[in-house]
Amino acid sequence: MSTPTPALSASRSRGTWARLAALSALAAFITLDLGAAEARPKLTREYDLKAAFLFNFAQFVEWPPEAFPEASSPFIMCILGEDPFGKSLDEIVAREAIGNRKIVVRRHRDVQEISTCHILYVSASETPRLNQILASLDGRHILSVGETDLFTTQNGIIQFLIVENRLRLRINVEAARMAKLSISSQLLRQAQIVRAK
């Protein structure tokens, strides 16, 4: 089975190179030891890596056309709750695009504020409301990403976790399917696949 091409690529050739570069970056990040950089605080290092992952996820996920209201609509990355990234995410996506779509980062305190969003990072601060938040995403084409325990078993799509001081991924493929998102087999091979309860 062939790997799906990015829906938003400006061209097939450009999209292929972008995906290969992103895959190399993801593979490197996954094997990086978070304790290796002594010059920087561990927490900052961890969230710099997670911000890079959020950007790179867009290279390995295909959204349906209806996820974008207009041909010129931007690609929107949202953070719900307390923002652990500081300036990292904004700096990573500055001057970047997904295909021909400008990337916009938005921050929200309540899931009800979210209208259009393509990648939603659910902060650990939202753990008490996680079931309600994920239920409110039903039927929407949003890649939900979090790091709290059981995130993927509660129908979140991608979970960050630290195993032996290394950043790893869990992916709930059924939750992705329900959101009509197609995740590349290249990304799936880098992750632990889990099933919802």
Describe this structure in words.
The structure is a single chain. With 197 residues, the protein is α/β, with parallel strands linked by helices. The protein contains 6 helices and 10 strands. It has one domain (12-194): Response regulator (Rossmann fold). 30% of the residues lie in helices and 22% in strands. Strands 3-4-2-5-6-7-8-10 form an 8-stranded mixed sheet. It has a two-stranded antiparallel ribbon with strand order 1-9.
User: Can you count the helices?
Assistant: 6
CATH architectural type: 3-Layer(aba) Sandwich
Number of extended strands: 10
Q: How widely separated are the two ends?
A: 28 Å
- Rg of Cα set: 16 Å
The largest beta-sheet arranges its strands as: 3-4-2-5-6-7-8-10
What is the molecular shape? globular
What is the oligomer described by this structure? Answer: single chain
Q: Please bin the fraction of helical residues.
A: 25-40%
Remind me, CATH topology?
Answer: Rossmann fold
CATH superfamily: Response regulator
Helix and strand element order: HHEEHEEEHEEEHEHE
**Could you report the average pLDDT, rounded to the nearest whole number?**
83
CATH top level? Alpha Beta
**What is the count of structural domains?**
1
User: Low-confidence parts lasting 5 or more residues at pLDDT below 50?
Assistant: 1-21, 36-43
The major pleated sheet works out as: 8 strands, mixed
